[in-house]
Design brief:
- This protein folds into 2 domains: 233 residues, no CATH class; 90 residues, no CATH class.
- Helix 2 packs antiparallel against helix 5, helix 3 packs antiparallel against helix 5 and helix 9 packs antiparallel against helix 10.
- The protein is of the alpha+beta class.
- A 6-stranded antiparallel sheet has the order 1-2-3-4-5-6.
- The longest helix is centred in the middle third of the chain and has 42 residues.
- The protein is built from 10 helices and 6 strands.
């Protein structure tokens, strides 16, 4: 069709080189993360109770997308370095330069690939990872939370939340949470009466937040001076809202890109801190630009001819520079989350600085 841009065979060839190299690095990292996480689950299964290998593998697979999506910029950096080095090693870059192509022309396919990967990662892969992570948290709580409900302080490694209700105050903790903190697994609650005196302790398999109360399933209630009683369903009053539950128990990694704007709006209306939510949203917005920055950074250390030597030094310099950037970006993110700087500045400034710095180096290398 006449209105579509014409893509040359050479651009397709270079783009495929970038795509294959990036996917290879990403796949290798995925396999390593799967093995590490699976071994950790095996260790926990041996410590907390017997869980089938198939269940452990399934939980690991469900957790994998949430872990690997954060590695995409690193995969783009390493993959781009590998793709450019392979082109240089076979003298293909030299031929392109001799044919009149500038660095900007043969980097364009790689930039396009990185941009598309970043967009797909934020808009499609992130929601998939959030859904899978939410499912994994529920299965994890069911698999590892059953044996720890009878012991004080065990199995409730999550945060402790103090809440109030019609019947008085209570303190809750849970081994895991899903649906942004409104559904809990392996729950412990210490209940106090209206005068602040301890009344009873509730240990339950799960709990679900309804309007004005928690619904505990398979609850064991222990009161002062009375025998423990079992209840299939037990209610505990609360003024807690779903937004406050999400702030206390929810996992940011389990919230998808498409859900974040509404969650930020609701949290703002409820008067809750939205710094972590806004930071996550800005990180997802900048991911395509971050992937482009990684291509530019890779190009600064990968365009030297093999005959001139010093390739190993340049590659090591690029890797060190990449890790330095990721460290700087993480520190900046923490500054934004803590409220010491605007969230948009904490997220966007490191990416823009990386692009401007890399482009400056490339301009110097290209034009002298």
């Amino acid at each position: 069709m006449a209105f579509l841009p014409r893509i040359s065979t050479l651009s397709l060839y270079i783009g495929m080189r970038f795509l294959i190299a990036i996917c290879a690095v990403f796949g290798l990292c995925t396999v390593l993360i799967f093995m590490i996480d699976f071994v950790e689950l095996l260790r926990q299964a041996g410590k907390y109770g017997s869980v089938s290998g198939w269940m452990l593998a399934w939980i690991t697979i469900l957790r994998l997308p949430a872990y690997t999506e954060m590695l995409l910029p690193f995969a783009v950096l390493v993959g781009s370095i590998g793709a450019l080095l392979m082109l240089a090693r076979k003298s293909e870059l030299a031929v392109m330069r001799a044919g009149g192509m500038s660095v900007w022309q043969f980097l364009r396919p790689g930039i396009t690939v990185a941009l598309l990967l970043g967009v797909v990662s934020s808009l499609a892969f992130n929601p998939l990872a959030a859904t899978a992570r939410d499912r994994a948290e529920r299965l994890y709580g069911e698999a590892f939370g059953r044996e720890s409900t009878g012991s004080l302080g065990k199995g409730t490694g999550g945060p402790w939340l103090r809440q109030d209700g019609l019947d008085g105050q209570s303190v809750l903790s849970a081994a895991s949470a899903r649906r942004r903190g409104t559904e809990l697994s392996t729950v412990t609650a210490f209940v106090y009466d209206k005068s602040g005196v301890f009344s009873e302790r509730v240990d339950a398999k799960s709990a679900k937040l309804e309007e004005g109360y928690w619904v505990f399933q398979d609850a064991l209630v222990s009161g002062v001076g009375r025998q423990p009683e079992s209840f299939g369903k037990y209610l505990l009053s609360t003024y807690l809202t779903p937004e406050r539950a999400a702030d206390a128990f929810g996992s940011i990694i389990s919230v998808s890109f498409w859900e974040l704007p509404d969650l930020i709006y609701v949290a703002d209306k409820a008067g809750l801190s939205t710094a972590s939510l806004r930071t996550q949203y800005e990180l997802l917005l900048t991911r395509p630009l971050l992937c482009i920055a990684m291509v530019f950074l890779a190009a600064t250390v990968s365009l030297r001819s093999f005959r001139s030597g010093g390739i190993q030094t340049m590659v090591v310099t690029g890797m060190v520079g990449g890790f330095g950037f990721f460290l700087f970006a993480e520190i900046s993110r923490q500054v934004g989350t803590s409220g010491l700087a605007p969230v948009w500045a904490a997220v966007w400034v490191p990416v823009l600085l990386a692009i401007l710095g890399s482009v400056t180096v490339l301009l110097h290398q290209e034009d002298g």
